[in-house]
Write a structure and sequence with these properties.
alpha+beta, 5-stranded mixed sheet, binds copper (II) ion, about 325 residues
Length: about 325
């Protein structure tokens, strides 16, 4: 009797698990997740135009074959001079939708999602995430206040000079030149002092090998419109992207010295590494044809956002990634 009940119990449990697994896997749901991840920065469905057109009713306006090409390979469609897309590009003042490197299955999932939204079976994807306003670190706040103070002094001095020239006055040229010499020399002394004390401390590694510098891990980073690609193996050319195993989550042990080898596969980007409190920790340029090395030791556990630090095209703000120290 008990075994029969248990059989029932496990039978029902298995059905629930299977149903759960199946429902988590429908293409339309996968498409919705992708849409939230990759499209909401530029598109809404029914929420008005953003960087790109509102996609409400797009499945009625266009056929599926066209949609798939537009989502999967917009650059090719634009290059062919497709009349529909040419009009859109004109309307969006030459702004073009970037190729997002999606696979065929992902494109189909996105189209399925757009159909479901049109049929009203699911709500459109949530709007783009709004990040909380970052707090300033005490050190950042200090730099900011010093900057404000110096700016205020400069404004006052300029205002004083401007007002003093309103009335004609006798000026002793010899005294003015004397004063200029004193000011120039003090500025020189101050500049040399600041450079001599700070330049030796710039965190750029001398050209020593990673092993000699005690590097625990080398991580390769390739930037391209509009993503950062991470790998434990060298990525130098675009062809390497499909070939080398890609890291989707980068985890680093606290206190490890990491050398990032940063390059770009298209235009110049910036590799900006921020700390858990959103303070900038290190940065280097991601340049096509060069590999820039950036060595850092990350002690504090937490999530370190990585942002592009160089405006690289319309999707620049989407270039976010992160690594975790744990
Ligand atoms: Cu950028």
């Amino acid at each position: 009797m008990l075994t029969r009940q248990l059989n029932w119990f496990f039978g029902i449990l298995a059905c629930l698990v299977l149903a759960g697994a199946a429902s988590a896997q429908t293409p339309a749901e996968q498409g919705r997740a992708l849409f939230e991840q990759m499209c909401v920065a530029c598109h809404s469905v029914g929420g008005g135009d953003r960087v790109g057109p509102d996609l409400a009713g797009v499945t009625q306006r266009r056929d599926d074959a066209w949609l798939k090409r537009m989502i999967g390979e917009p650059d090719a469609l634009i290059a062919e001079g497709d009349p529909v897309v040419t009009k859109l590009v004109e309307r969006y003042k030459g702004l073009v939708m970037p190729r997002l490197g999606l696979e065929a299955g992902q494109v189909e999932a996105l189209v399925a999602h757009l159909h479901e939204v049109a049929a009203g079976t699911v709500a459109s994807a949530a709007p783009a995430v709004v990040y909380a306003r970052p707090e300033m670190m005490p050190s950042q706040a200090r730099v900011w206040h010093v900057f404000l103070l110096i700016s205020a002094v400069i404004v006052v001095v300029f205002a004083g000079v401007a007002l003093s020239t309103a009335r004609p006055r006798e000026v002793s040229v010899a005294r003015a030149y004397g004063l200029r010499k004193v000011l120039f020399l003090s500025a020189m002394v101050a500049a040399i002092g600041v450079l001599a004390t700070t330049l030796p401390r710039t965190p750029y590694a001398a050209d020593v090998s990673a092993a000699a510098a005690g590097v625990d891990r080398i991580i390769y980073v390739a930037a391209r419109q509009f993503e950062f690609i991470w790998s434990d193996e060298p990525i130098v050319r675009a062809e390497d992207v499909g070939r080398v195993p890609r890291l989707h989550q980068v985890a680093i042990a606290p206190g490890a010295t990491v050398e990032f080898r940063v390059t770009s596969l298209d235009v110049t980007h910036g590799f900006g590494l921020y700390g858990p409190q959103r303070q900038i920790v290190a940065q280097t340029q991601a340049m096509p044809g060069y590999v820039n090395r950036l060595r850092v030791r990350l002690d504090a556990p937490g999530e370190y956002p990585v942002l592009c630090l160089e405006y690289c095209a319309a999707g620049h703000h989407r270039m976010r990634s992160s690594l975790t120290v744990r």
